[in-house]
Amino acid sequence: MKLNDLSLGILVLLCGGGIYLSALQFSPIPGQSYGAETMPTTIALVAIGLGIFMIGKAVVARSGQPALALADWARSPVALLGLSVALGLVLFYILFSRAIGFVPTAFLVIVTLMLTLRTRPVTAIVVSLLATIVIQQAFGRLLLVPLPRSALGFLW
Q: What pairs with residue 69 in β-bridges?
């Protein structure tokens, strides 16, 4: 899928505005001249500026590109199946990760997606296991992100 510069510029501008409005809700950190809203506000202002630039560039160029163009692969039933499975797996993770835990849920999500995309089963299982462990260690231990715990204590 490809958006022309005008459509993409409008999308970036709207997203930047949404980030900015969301950042206004963050509470200040006591004793500091900057707070939790500093980085999101900066990102939002850059996005707004980029959106305005892209819109201006598209208006000056006046290209006759369609607002949205689908690539040939996007019309493939296999690609649509992969997209549907990926969206379903994200929904599965959101709904069940707290009950099942991060490690089993992430493993199921990754291995299912890899098998849907026709990866060999042994490769899918090994890569899914390694990816799950690396992600859990990076986010759970290194970055201290509170990942959902499994009811089975040995699975983190």
A: 2
